[in-house]
Fold each of these.
Amino acid sequence: MATFVISKKLSGHYKYELTSRRGKTIFTSNAFELRFECEDEIDLFKKSVDKLFFMRFRSPSGKFYFKIILNDKEIAVSRKYTTQLLLQKGIDEIIKYGPQAEFLDFSKSEDIFPPAEDIFG
């Protein structure tokens, strides 16, 4: 099953990603000033999967990617894929698992490791 992951960028803005059940990023959202805006858009995304439009592109290096359009607004850009088949699999995974995907919030800047001074003296 896919998972939405909310995180904080170095600029202080928030973003969310949809990751596959294998942990690979499928797409990354645009930036938001407030964390709850991410949650609101995830909820809208999950309710509106049938209304999504996927614009397909090819980069100058030959990789394939897509942009997700909802209500005439670009909401996310996919990662780069090496083939059109893999790109289509990414889209299929969004349609199949997106509506029931849970979300994880990694936007809090709590350190999981103690300061180096505490360890090394």
Amino acid sequence: MNRVIGVGGIFLRARDPAALGAWYRRHLGIDVQSWGGAVFRWGDGAGDPANGTTVWSVGDGGNFAPSTAPFMVNYRVADLHGLLELLRAEGCEVLDAAEESEFGIFGWVMDPEGNKVELWQPPTGA
């Protein structure tokens, strides 16, 4: 079974998300949008567009709980439910609820250091 097949997003906790987003916009040129993040479109080795994106976002980190880390990484997976079942069987701390939306299916597991890891199965064709 494939496990992680890509990085779907990187999320940063900030005391002042707007100010931190402005810093990244000004100094690193990240096109931070009004929702607090940016979308990086994937490309192949020749620079041509490829199917996929990676989201980068700054926020208050409320959705990182129970982790206290200042970040959360979202990993793209092909079979979320199968992977969560496998992780449970391997003794990993899988958080109970998976969520489904128009953006795909999301699930979470805690790593041994207490970091919440988000797993994302994009919608079919995305």
Amino acid sequence: MPKEQEILIALGSNLGSEIGHSAATLKAALAALHRRGLALRRCSRIYKTPCFPAGAGPDYANACAVLHSAETPAGVLDLLHATEAEFGRQRITRWGSRTLDLDLIGIGEIVLPDATTQAAWRALDVAEQAQRAPAELILPHPRLQDRAFVLVPLCDVAAGWRHPLLGRSVAEMCGALPAADRAAVVPLQDAAP
């Protein structure tokens, strides 16, 4: 039987859903993930963050969570996509507005598909990132180290997790971001359920 692993995810919404506003959608998504067998261990506060890219839509509600499961990485991704669909997510425009966005950030020390491919996706410039999406699961998420809207909430729940290739903790990666980027991620409320 596969061993349970710690799964890091990022949650975001800037359109809300049938459930309600974006923050309510994030809370409901956590409950839906639990129903699908992904056990919630910790959840960050919910933060208000500027839409990325700037001007592409309303500001986001973002959070991060630590889940546990014995699912394979591909199985976890399938569960995240099924939950997004449940909340009306449509994949029309890359980096467009969305009812719910669930990103698989990392699973323990797993690197997929391999260190060379992960590093190549990590090195893409922003213009290429906006145009290209990988055909396979890349872990850890290749833009994790660049995104305050992920690292700030991730510090709430997994500050000590170390990127298996970069060797830096979440707290160290967050601290390396420009102060203005970190300051733009503002808590909406205390920790989610």
Amino acid sequence: MKVESLDHIVLTVADIEKSIAFYTGLLGMKEVTFGSGRKALAFGDQKINLHEHGKEFEPKALSPRPGSADLCFVTGTPVEQYADFLSSRGIFIEEGPVSRTGAKGSIRSIYLRDPDGNLLELSNYE
């Protein structure tokens, strides 16, 4: 027995619409509505389900709160170009480009924050 892949994660946010605007407008994710009006962000073969803080769906994490995630996304866009794009839209790049190690090997990364303060890493495999 073994786990094969990650299907989705849940991100607890303060404002779902603000998060959707950020992730769709700057990271190119797609807004998805499912179930009884629940919202998610789709990209590749994965999705991020969004829970509004204080209105989470059950079952949920033991201590869900906005700003507690640290996520790494792989992009086909060179991170140097992505940094310029984000900076031109007023997004502060906290670090990078820097070399790191991803799940499959060496990556080049930049770091930024989403509206809730979650740390986001955008990476290219080298």
